[in-house]
Design a protein that fits this description.
By secondary structure, this protein is α/β, with parallel strands linked by helices. The protein is built from 7 helices and 6 strands, in the order E-H-E-H-H-E-H-E-H-H-E-H-E. It has helices at residues 13-17, 33-37, 50-62, 77-86, 118-126, 139-156, 168-179; strands at 4-6, 21-28, 70-73, 95-96, 161-166, 196-202. It has a 6-stranded mixed β-sheet. The longest helix has 18 residues, at 139-156.
């Protein structure tokens, strides 16, 4: 199965033809047991399972032709191991960045939505940007900490190709912002475990 999804920022299309873009491979880590069980793992450091390791190996093979100039990762093991597998053939290590960690579910980490208060579960399903997890974060908080990091990475690596190894919700937030898509499309932007979303930015421009 093809795990690389090409999604181009509209304003970069003509620049891409002239080879004047910064390319970001926004990767989601491989499957964990908590993913398989539908549990909210968030900032809990759950390792990939055997399926996830195999998924990442397949993605690494698919991306073997890509020469990365730099790489960044969430500090959690599942994303670091994903980046390491992708970069195995290159003399490059991913730099952990705390702001690239997944949404914190706070007191609800380790639970499934079936155990939540029904009104809270409905709000998360129907209007996720309205939800703040008790003792954790909201999606707006993730955007506040993560988008500036993406902006700095794009600015620092003008015209280069960069790997970012992240998480499901984190990557959704970054992709929605970059693509200029409305908040209500949060759940519509799907990214499977061990897949890559490819984003292009014109050189000398940063995501606004």
């Amino acid at each position: 199965m093809n795990r690389v999804v090409h999604s181009v920022v509209n304003r970069a299309v003509h620049a891409a033809a002239a080879n004047t873009v910064t390319t970001i491979y926004l990767v989601r880590h491989g499957e964990t047991d908590w993913n398989a069980d539908g549990r909210c793992q968030g900032t809990t450091d759950v390792p990939m399972n055997a399926v996830g390791v195999a998924q990442v190996q397949a993605l690494a093979q698919e991306l073997a032709h890509v020469a990365f100039d730099a790489a960044y990762t969430s500090p959690l093991a599942r994303t670091r191991e994903t980046a390491t597998a992708i970069l195995r053939r290159q003399r490059l290590r991913a730099m952990p960045v705390p702001e690239l960690i997944e949404l914190s579910y706070g007191a609800l980490q380790g639970t499934t939505s079936a155990s939540w208060d029904p009104s809270f579960a409905t709000a998360w399903r129907d209007d996720p940007w309205s939800v703040a997890f008790p003792g954790g974060e909201s999606l707006a908080m993730v955007r506040e900490r993560a988008v500036p990091v993406l902006q700095r990475i794009v600015a620092m690596h003008s015209g280069e190709t960069v790997l970012i190894s992240g998480h499901g919700h984190l990557n959704r937030v970054l992709a929605l912002h970059t693509l200029g898509r409305p908040e209500h499309e949060f759940w519509a932007l799907e990214q499977a475990n061990a897949s890559a979303l490819v984003l292009h930015f014109p050189v000398a421009a940063t995501p606004e």
